[in-house]
UniProtKB/TrEMBL annotation:
GO terms for molecular function: metal ion binding; NADH pyrophosphatase activity. The gene is nudC. This is NAD(+) diphosphatase. Its cofactor is Zn(2+); Mg(2+). NCBIfam families: PRK00241.1 (NF001299). It comes from Saccharopolyspora thermophila. It is an enzyme of class 3 (hydrolase). Residues 165-291 form the Nudix hydrolase domain.
Length: 308
């Protein structure tokens, strides 16, 4: 990382990423309650999440919660403790109900509608339940695992090894020229016209800054400098943590999109980005921005509207 910072490169996120918001205390010590969580359960509230990560959201943009005792006097099998606030505990439970038929929403479509408390609960629930769905067998001996610690660990029935929820770090970087252009790219599988900033997973033994340099070079063939951290957002699809960065690149350097991964990459002027931001749905002809619930949107908006 160099010490030279280009003019106009000190922008920040325009606001906290929508899925980073949370108010509920996770209270780790409650996960090992001697009564197995029965006291917490008695006054708890339960969020139902279907197999596609959808849950009901009411007309006031609030999560629809159910009294925990509707599911029994003790924590229901499969329930996970999300946290507590104001003497109310919050739990999540997978349901076999197909929420599509009742208009249930997933995080991508509903997360941005929720207040800070509900956004944090829903994000945690989707990630934690998704981990349980895919951690049913021990990675060491292959025996079945059972959930323990109020859903925050699984214990192997064979070798007694405990496993904990996984989070995969990924960098996401807004590359700009230090002036009025930002580098945007699109993947072949995205909706027509959708462009975003560059991103990729951190590899074993790699620093975050090194990952930024490598991913940008691999995806569009340019070298970056002045790498700096902006913020982060959980992205439980299925278990990522997006670590946002900004970096500067030479706009005269040729762009070489990665074959099969990047369909198109181009430099976009600030005025064009601002026009898309002002439009309905973040879209103008030839440019469709990422959804507002993503950290990518907050990064792009922060850069485009920065007045520093």
């Amino acid at each position: 990382m160099t010490s030279d910072v280009c003019a106009g490169s000190d922008f920040q996120l325009d606001s906290a990423p929508l899925l980073s918001r949370s108010t509920v205390d996770r209270r780790e010590w409650l996960r090992d309650a001697p009564d197995g969580g029965a006291t917490l359960w008695a006054t708890g509230r339960v969020l139902l999440v279907d197999a596609k990560g959808r849950t009901p959201i009411d007309a006031n943009a609030r999560l629809v919660m159910h009294p925990a005792t509707d599911f029994g006097e003790r924590p229901a099998p499969g329930a996970v403790l999300l946290g507590a606030e104001d003497d109310v505990s919050y739990w999540a439970l997978r349901t076999e109900h197909d929420g599509a038929q009742d208009g249930w929403l997933d995080l991508r479509t509903g997360g941005g509608l929720l207040n800070d408390t509900d956004a944090g609960l829903f994000t945690c629930a989707v990630g934690l339940l998704g981990w349980h769905d895919n951690a049913r067998y021990c990675a060491v001996c292959g025996a079945a695992t059972t959930r323990v610690r109020a859903g925050w660990a699984r214990r192997c029935t064979g070798c007694d090894r405990e496993e904990y929820p996984r989070t995969d770090p990924a960098v996401i970087c807004l590359v700009h020229d230090g002036a009025d252009h930002v580098l945007l790219a699109r993947q072949p599988i995205w909706p027509k016209g959708r462009f975003s900033v560059l991103a990729g997973f951190v590899e074993v033994g790699e620093s975050l800054e090194a990952c930024v340099r490598r991913e940008v070079a691999e995806e569009v063939g340019v070298q970056v400098r002045d790498i700096r951290y902006l913020g982060s957002q959980p992205w439980p699809f299925p278990r990522s943590l997006m670590l946002g960065f900004a970096a500067v690149a030479d706009r005269s350097a040729p762009l070489v999109p990665a074959d099969g991964e990047i369909e198109e990459a181009r430099w976009v002027h600030r005025d064009t980005v601002l026009a898309a931001l002002r439009s309905d749905g973040g879209e103008i002809e030839g440019l469709r921005l990422p959804p507002g619930v993503s950290i990518a949107y907050r990064m792009i908006r922060g850069w485009a509207t920065w007045q520093g």
